[in-house]
From TrEMBL:
PANTHER family: FHF COMPLEX SUBUNIT HOOK-INTERACTING PROTEIN 2B, RAI16 PROTEIN-RELATED. This is FHF complex subunit HOOK interacting protein 2B. It comes from the Eukaryota. Residues 203-216 have a biased composition (Low complexity). InterPro entries: FHIP (IPR019384), FHIP_C (IPR045669), FHIP_KELAA_motif (IPR045668). Residues 566-649 form the FHF complex subunit HOOK-interacting protein C-terminal domain. Belongs to the FHIP family. It comes from Cyprinus carpio carpio. Residues 183-225 are annotated as: Disordered.
């Protein structure tokens, strides 16, 4: 400071320039005079001279204001940055490239005036970028700092992005066509469901196999494909966590530029979309195929930055293969953020590339294979992926991949229009209970995503015409736009033989109503109260008294479900049986506030067309069959209570006969209570 104050008191411009030139000459004279080529650069005066030159440039800018100072003019006119780039490339003296990158980084970050649009700045910056990301590089730390400084500068002055990317019309056209070909090959060339070996750490064989399935081209590697995007993607794979983190943050700075024209530039003029999808696919292929579905479902996920700040996965998520699993899902979270922050044109193209290379190119063949073990683990991975995808662009592509875009009512011959969708639906009733449960979990995860097209595609398009209902069987409900039945005593329930048998043989008809509603709101008329009470009691009375055990165990009553239904976000937490998972999916469907869905699932009084079944009529038949079977079980109530306490963790499990049947009775009792609670919560609101 004292030195600069003394200079400022005399002739600042002359002394600063003389000092700046002298430091530069000291650097160039070293190459003329030195004879020891093995002497490291840190043992010379070069680092000190570069620091002095930088300090002079920064000080000069503060003194000159808007005008360009003579030292900066000298640096530009004499192409000092070009010369430094050449010296860094030669690595003479040893370690010179690190010094050059540090100097470039500090110039870009500390000089406030825009400089990247100047030809004698952006050309050496381009050359230095192409020196980064080389095989076996010893300068990854300095490279990541330099690239971060470049991206930060571009973020500040977005118009210079085109100078950094080195994009011309010819290169843009060539890059776009190459990227499209890669995406198509990633889709068509990945038909084999065979999985590459999955070692605990990345291996060249796994990576090459993954690249083959995802349609990767050798030209996409940073060794041959120059430019800041391939270099950043390469450094993002670094074993040094800080280097990888800084590189990914740099890429995020570029992608999140809000201007649509920059998004179009990155989408069409760089291999960003292809490289991003390729990396995600590589990480997916490194997940061991021997992972347990339970471990996959229990994985809670982590933000992508956490992957570089945590030494190892948490103990609760530590299991063989957990590191590979975390690596994939952290990068998936990174893709989420990229596609959310990017301009729409870029976000959509990145998501499309991920769809073609990862979903269609790798996951689909595994889901369509014959191996039950392969189907199971990949369905579990896909289910977990659905849970962690929250980017609108990625979610849209995911829905297109799983369900397609059809919205018309399905017909029997439509099974070939979207083969994956129908195969997954078939897997819900697979010979393997594990596959059925895992696939149902997948659909349950889908139903929780904020996408109207999911519910429309899976359910609503088949209820739109209300073909399940006997025509002319009700009166029009102006509030909901659908017909509603006039409630009368003994309407159509007695027509079902199972229901009649249950009345006669099980004492079902002698039960008192389990819910008697008080005046919920004064503005509700008596008929509205009666309708709510009748619908709720219809579900509560489905299971005969001798098969009920929830009232014998504290905390298992109907009021518990009413409390949970008022939240509409907490449901059955123990999907350890297929029946329980089925009821979990149906309960989630019943919560949706759609009149057709509500009528089909929660109205026990609709008049069904011939051959049609509602949820209530199906439950009546299932419970009738169960009651006929449990009549032959001795002390059935005691055994049911024991099973219930075991499922709740209140007793240790013991061997019992008919355990599958008894568990089924308990699941159905809980399901009926849950449906009653949902109806209780929804109907008063709709009757206001």
């Amino acid at each position: 400071i004292l030195f600069f104050n003394q200079i400022n008191a005399r002739e600042p411009s002359i002394n600063l320039l003389d000092s700046f030139v002298n430091h530069w000459k000291a650097i160039t004279n070293y190459y003329i005079e030195t004879t020891d080529e093995s002497r490291p650069v840190k043992q010379t005066d070069i680092p000190w001279c570069l620091r002095q030159m930088l300090d002079i440039l920064v000080y000069e800018e503060k003194q000159q204001g808007e005008e360009t100072g003579p030292c900066m003019e000298y640096l530009l006119q004499h192409k000092l940055l070009e010369t430094l780039c050449t010296l860094g490339k030669a690595q003479y003296p040893p370690g010179m490239s690190q010094q050059v990158m540090m100097f470039f980084s500090k110039v870009l970050s500390q000089i406030q005036k825009p400089v990247l649009h100047l030809i004698n700045v952006y050309r050496p910056v381009q050359k230095l970028i192409n020196l980064c990301g080389l095989p076996d590089s010893k300068t990854e730390t300095e490279e990541s700092q330099f690239l971060f400084a470049v991206c930060t500068r571009v973020r500040k002055d977005p118009y210079v992005l085109n100078y950094i990317l080195e994009i011309t019309k010819d290169s843009q056209k060539r890059c776009s066509s190459t990227s499209d070909e890669a995406l198509e090959e990633g889709c068509s060339g990945a038909s084999s469901p065979e999985r590459a070996p999955s070692p605990p750490s990345p291996s060249s064989s796994a990576a090459s196999s993954c690249s083959a399935r995802s349609g990767a081209h050798p030209s996409s590697s940073p060794q041959t494909a120059t430019g800041i995007i391939p270099v950043l993607m390469h450094l993002g794979k670094s074993q040094k966590s800080r280097v990888a983190l800084r590189s990914m943050e740099s890429l995020l700075l570029l992608v999140s530029l809000p201007q649509e024209d920059t998004g179009h530039l990155l989408a069409e003029g760089t291999p960003l979309c292809h490289l991003l999808a390729q990396r995600l696919t590589e990480l997916y292929c490194l997940i061991p195929s021997s992972l347990s579905p339970a471990d996959i479902h229990s994985y809670s996920g982590a933000q992508w930055r956490d992957h570089f700040t945590q030494d190892s996965p948490e103990e609760s998520q530590s299991f063989p293969g957990s590191e590979n699993l975390q690596g994939f899902f952290c990068f998936l979270d990174y893709c989420n953020e990229l596609t959310k922050e990017a301009p729409r044109v870029l976000g959509v193209k990145m998501a499309r590339a991920i769809h073609l290379q990862w979903l269609k190119g790798v996951i689909q063949p595994h889901l369509l294979q014959m191996s039950e073990a392969g189907i199971l683990v990949h369905t579990a991975l896909l289910s977990c992926s659905v849970r962690h995808i929250h980017s609108p662009a990625l979610l849209e592509e995911l829905v297109q991949f799983l369900l397609g875009s059809d919205t018309y009512c399905e017909k029997q011959q439509d099974t070939e229009t979207h083969i994956l969708r129908y195969r997954l639906i078939e897997h819900c009733n697979h010979i393997s209970d594990e596959i059925s449960i895992t696939t149902l979990r997948l659909f349950e995860e889908l139903l929780q995503k904020p996408s109207k097209s999911i519910l429309t595609n899976l359910v609503l398009r088949n209820l739109e015409k209300r073909s399940y209902r006997l025509p002319g069987s009700g009166v029009t409900d102006e509030r909901h736009g659908v017909e509603s039945d006039v409630l009368e005593e003994s309407e159509e329930l007695e027509e079902d033989p199972f229901f009649t048998d249950m009345y006669e043989d099980s004492g079902f008809g002698s039960q008192e109503p389990l819910l008697s509603l008080p005046s919920v709101r004064e503005r509700h008329n008596t008929r509205a109260h009666t309708q709510v009470a009748d619908i709720v009691n219809s579900f509560l009375c489905l299971v005969p008294q001798e098969a009920k055990t929830s009232h014998l165990v504290q905390g298992a009553g109907y009021d518990t479900y009413v409390h949970d239904a008022h939240k509409l976000d907490r449901w059955l937490k123990f999907p350890y049986e297929l029946n329980l998972q089925v009821t979990s999916v149906l309960s989630r469907l019943a919560v949706f506030p759609h009149p057709h869905l509500h009528e089909y699932l929660l109205d026990p009084y609709i008049s069904l067309s011939p051959g049609a079944r509602s949820l209530f009529s199906t439950l009546v038949r299932v419970i009738g069959e169960l009651m006929q079977r449990i009549q032959h079980i001795h002390n059935v109530t005691d055994k049911l209570m024991m099973i219930r306490r075991q499922l709740m963790g209140l007793e240790e499990e013991t061997l019992l006969d008919h355990v599958t049947l008894l568990k089924g009775v308990i699941v159905l009792e809980e399901f009926c209570k849950e449906l009653a609670a949902i109806a209780f919560v929804k109907l008063p609101i709709e009757e206001q």
